[in-house]
């Protein structure tokens, strides 16, 4: 597990604990690390929901939580992370809909949500992600008609919607 005193490192700018065998939840008091700009916890055995305090890391630009066993929803407070540029939540057990609040992250350039259990439709406000260059929402349980606004993202270079249940015509 991640030791609780780690959150006392309030001046830490980058924390990289990828590719270990860390088990258990993300620190509930991780929001105390107010200076963190990059948090990489990928490829461990972390489980449970994203703690609310993580959404207090307002300076964070890169968040890597992929390839764990995290679950639950992505909270609406994700819109507090206004400096976020890279978000990797893929290969976990997240469920719920993709919150429209995610579309308020105007600096987001990479969005990886594939291989989870997200349901419902893509948010209509996806057009707000004007800086988005890479987006992968494949291997979820998304459905409905693709929002026409999705095809107005001028900077989009990589786009994967495979293995979902979308229907209708490509606008």
Automatic annotation (TrEMBL):
Q: Does the keyword Nucleus apply?
A: no
Per the record, the coiled-coil ranges are none
Q: Any keyword Transmembrane?
A: yes
Chief subcellular location: membrane
- Which InterPro entries would you find in this protein's record? Leu-rich_rpt, LRR_dom_sf
Task: Give its localization.
Answer: Cell membrane; Endomembrane system; Membrane
Kindly state which keywords UniProt assigns to this record, in alphabetical order. Cell membrane, Glycoprotein, Leucine-rich repeat, Membrane, Receptor, Repeat, Signal, Transmembrane, Transmembrane helix
Topology with regard to the membrane? Single-pass membrane protein; Single-pass type I membrane protein
What is one term from the GO cellular component aspect held by the record? plasma membrane
UniProt lists the family membership as follows:
Belongs to the RLP family.
Q: Report what the protein is called.
A: Leucine-rich repeat-containing N-terminal plant-type domain-containing protein
């Amino acid at each position: 597990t991640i030791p609780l005193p780690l959150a006392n490192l309030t001046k830490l700018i980058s924390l990289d604990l990828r590719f270990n065998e860390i088990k258990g939840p993300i620190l509930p008091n991780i929001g105390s690390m107010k200076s963190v700009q990059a948090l990489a916890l990928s490829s461990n055995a972390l489980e449970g929901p994203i703690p609310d305090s993580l959404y207090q890391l307002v300076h964070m630009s890169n968040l890597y939580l992929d390839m764990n066993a995290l679950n639950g929803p992505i909270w609406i407070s994700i819109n507090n992370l206004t400096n976020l540029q890279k978000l990797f939540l893929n290969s976990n057990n997240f469920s719920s809909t993709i919150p429209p609040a995610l579309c308020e992250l105007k600096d987001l350039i990479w969005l990886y949500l594939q291989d989870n259990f997200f349901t419902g439709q893509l948010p209509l406000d996806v057009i707000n992600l004007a800086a988005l260059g890479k987006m992968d929402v494949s291997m979820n349980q998304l459905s409905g008609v693709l929002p026409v606004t999705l095809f107005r993202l001028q900077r989009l270079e990589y786009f994967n919607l495979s293995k979902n249940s979308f229907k209708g015509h490509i606008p």
